[in-house]
C-alpha cells in the first residue's frame, strides 16, 4: 500500500546546515523523551464511565473505523496528546515555522499524518489539504486550537471552518497529568513527571451545519471555547483532589 504523503518527512534543503542539524537533534531528542515519559505515565480513562457519549466513541484509541471527527485541544497538552493517540488514524496541521519542522517529524514518528500550515502562514492551502485527508484518505483531524503562537487558551476559527466544510463534528479533548513541569513558553507547555497519572477527558461533539452563517460560526466557536474551558476546570479539580 502506498504511503500517504502526509506521513513522509519534508526535505530540509531550504535550511542552512546548522539549522538542519538542529532540527534533527531536537527531533530525535524530543521524540525519545516523549516516548520514554509516555511509557511511564498511567493513563486514566475512567471519565468515560460517567460521561459515555459519542465523543468517546469517536476518540477510541487506535481505532481506524470510527466516525471521522476533528479533535481540538490546547497547545500546552501536545506532548501527552501526541503520545496517547500514537499510531491512530489522525492527521494534524503543523506550522511552517522552524519549530514546526521538528514538531511535524515527531508527530510523524508517532504515526500521525501532517499538513503544513497554520492560521497565519499557508492557512488556505493547509485547510484544503486537511479536507482532502479527511474525505479521500479517511483521516480524522487534530488541531491545537490556540496555536501556533497563542493567545493561550483562546480558540481560533480553524476547527469550526473545517467542521462546516467537511461535516465532521468537533470533539474537544484534554489530558490532565497529576504532576508536571511547565516551560516558560507562550503556551506554558506541560511536561509530565515520570510515573505520574494522567486522566483523559472528552467532551460531547459539536456539530456545525454546512449552511451556518457567520453568527452561527461565532456561536460554534464560543461553544468550543466553553467546552474546552470546562475540561480545563474539570482537569484541575481532578488534579487537586485526592482521588
SSE diagram, text form:
Elements: H1 17-40, E1 42-44, H2 47-50, H3 54-58, E2 70-73, H4 78-84, E3 90-94, H5 98-109, E4 113-116, H6 123-136, E5 140-144, H7 158-166, E6 170-177, E7 180-182, E8 190-192, E9 197-202, H8 214-240
Parallel strand pairs: 1-9, 2-5, 2-6, 3-4, 3-5
Antiparallel strand pairs: 6-9, 7-8
Written overview of the protein:
The model has no long low-confidence stretch (mean pLDDT 90). The protein has a 7-stranded mixed sheet with strand order 1-9-6-2-5-3-4, with helices on both faces. It has a two-stranded antiparallel ribbon with strand order 7-8. It contains 8 helices and 9 strands. α1 (17-40) packs across α5 and α6 (123-136) crosses α7 (158-166). The longest helix is centred in the C-terminal third of the chain and has 27 residues, at 214-240. Helix content is 42%, strand content 17%. It is an alpha/beta fold and 243 residues long.
Summary tags:
17% strand, alpha/beta, 8 helices, 243 residues
Give a brief rundown of this model.
With 243 residues, the chain is an alpha/beta fold.
